[in-house]
Amino acid sequence: MLRTRTPHAIHPDHHRLRARVPEKMPVALNVNGVETRLKVAPWTTLLDALRDHLDLTGTKKGCDHGQCGACTVLLDGRRINACLTLAVMHDGQPVTTIEGLADGETLHPLQAAFVAHDGFQCGYCTAGQICSAAGMLHESHMGMPSYVTENLALARPELTNAEIRERMSGNICRCAAYPNIVAAIRQAAGGPA
Fold first, then answer.
1. Dihedral of CA 57/60/65/66: which sign?
2. For every residue of the chain, which 3-state class applies, written as one string?
3. Does domain 102-193 have CATH number 3.40.50.1820?
4. Which architecture characterizes domain 23-100 according to CATH?
């Protein structure tokens, strides 16, 4: 018996329904203290908005699947993978990238510690590592008064190497600079390096 396939019927309103998806949507991104209004496709990730629309290329595109951590940024002080979230979901929320951690020419304590401990080799993962570490240290003293958390040297010196490794496990360093990364984070957290 010979069977033939009949093509699927196209819904009569196909073209009208398809036109409802907006090509671009307005979004106000508040990145590193600067608000920028953009029009992006609804499916534009925060990572692509940062890199392609705002030219903030410190945040890297590694795996594009949320597995390597190279795209880690801070959203309201908490670390997120920018490749796994849409830009339009963060309209007006404060986003901090690696470019926003330093205070002018003065490096953030984590940036200075990474330099001091050679916490990078090729440098591709470094921005994500530093942003993730900043978020991790922020998470570790949630609920503490701001006068304590403003100075990282007063923040939880009791973090063990094992605890730092576990909390940073979402960030991969393909060059295996992990001992130096842990030492840098311990120094910035106020513990022995």
1. negative
2. CCCCCCCCCCCCCHHHHHCCCCCCEEEEEEECCEEEEEEECCCCEHHHHHHHHCCCCCCCCCCCCCCCCCCEEEECCEEEEHHHCEHHHHCCCEEECHHHCCECCECCHHHHHHHHCCCCCCCCCHHHHHHHHHHHHHHHCCCCCHHHHCCHHHCCCCCCHHHHHHHCCCCCCCCCCHHHHHHHHHHHHCCCC
3. no
4. Roll (3.10)
The Cα 115–Cα 123 span in angstroms is 11
Can you give the residue ranges of every domain in the chain?
A: 23-100, 102-193
Instruction: Give pLDDT tens digits along the chain (193 positions).
Output: 566 665 666 666 666 655 566 789 999 999 999 999 999 999 999 999 999 999 999 999 999 999 999 999 999 999 999 999 999 999 999 999 999 999 999 999 999 999 999 999 999 999 999 999 999 998 876 554 454 445 554 444 478 999 999 999 999 999 999 999 999 999 998 866 5
Whether the Cβ atoms of residue 125 and residue 70 lie closer than 8 Å to each other: yes
